């Protein structure tokens, strides 16, 4: 299988684009707004890092998560909060950053009369809770286009063996504390506000090497049923290579 092996991404805190790929775009937005619209081909998600936004006329505070699957009407108003904005797949929305605004190119449309209005809102500390030794994962989103998890790791937590994904991008935004992330050939300490992404074919793993807790968002795009993968592992199922490879995870070394 020939892989589209891209460059790994490791970035310090700051607003603006984080990763712009066909699988996913991730950016941090400040003051911004959008009128009601739909995306026909991709999902649009928001995690509030600081402050509060109005998402589909509902207040969404820091730690809140909003999700609009394809063909779901959504809009938001942000008077000064900081938002992690995710579009998956990203092949359309990445053109927003090259100055292209044509609706067909960026897959943004006025809502049709029969569009769904069922945007998903997940409040802080909500989501399906997966408990494990010295860590907790909250499932925030589980779509074919995108899986989002919020992790809380205790001191000294060691992550999975080094591995690659062949079909999807695995990325991390650090909410609190710091993670030691091996991505490619190099280990990196990614502190609060930092971001890292492993494109398909790039070896990676992570751990909490510090003395305090570490909280992070973990994004998988496309979703490859990664919620099921974590759910089954937390239930005690680990299996051999076939089990992991069924969820696009291939251990290396």
Give your account of this protein's structure.
The protein has 3 helices and 22 strands. The protein has helices spanning 103-106, 226-234, 241-245; strands spanning 9-11, 16-20, 25-29, 32-37, 43-50, 52-55, 58-61, 65-68, 74-78, 82-88, 120-122, 128-132, 135-142, 147-153, 163-164, 169-176, 178-183, 186-191, 195-198, 204-207, 214-221, 250-251. The protein is 7% helix and 45% strand. The chain has a 7-stranded antiparallel sheet with strand order 1-19-16-21-14-13-12, with helices on one face. It has a 6-stranded antiparallel sheet with strand order 2-3-10-5-8-11, with no helix packed on it. It has 2 domains: 11-122, Sandwich (Jelly Rolls); 128-251, Jelly Rolls (Sandwich), CATH 2.60.120.10.
Keywords:
7% helix, seven-stranded antiparallel β-sheet, single chain, 22 strands, Jelly Rolls, 253 residues, mainly beta
């Amino acid at each position: 299988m020939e892989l589209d092996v891209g460059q790994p991404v490791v970035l310090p805190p700051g607003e603006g684009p984080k990763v712009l790929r066909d699988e996913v775009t991730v950016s941090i937005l400040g003051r911004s707004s959008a009128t009601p619209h739909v995306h026909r081909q991709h999902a649009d998600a928001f995690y509030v890092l600081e402050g509060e936004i109005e998402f589909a006329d509902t207040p969404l505070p820091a730690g809140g998560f909003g999700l609009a699957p394809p063909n779901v009407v959504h809009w938001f108003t942000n008077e000064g909060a900081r938002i992690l904005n995710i579009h998956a797949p990203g092949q359309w929305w990445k053109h927003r950053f090259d100055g292209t605004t044509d609706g067909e190119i960026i897959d943004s449309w006025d809502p049709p009369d029969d569009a769904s209005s069922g945007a998903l809102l997940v409040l802080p500390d909500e989501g399906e809770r997966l408990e494990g030794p010295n860590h907790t994962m909250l499932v925030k989103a589980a779509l074919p286009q995108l899986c989002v998890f919020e992790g809380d790791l205790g001191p000294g937590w060691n992550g999975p063996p080094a591995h690659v994904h062949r079909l999807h991008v695995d990325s991390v935004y650090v909410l609190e504390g710091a993670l030691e992330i091996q991505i490619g050939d190099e280990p990196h300490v990614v502190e609060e506000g930092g971001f890292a992404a492993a494109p398909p074919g790039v070896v990676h793993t992570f751990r909490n090497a510090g003395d305090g807790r570490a909280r992070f968002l973990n994004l998988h795009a496309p979703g490859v049923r990664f919620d099921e993968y974590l759910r089954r592992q937390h239930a005690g199922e680990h299996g051999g290579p076939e089990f992991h490879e069924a969820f696009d995870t291939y251990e290396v070394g």
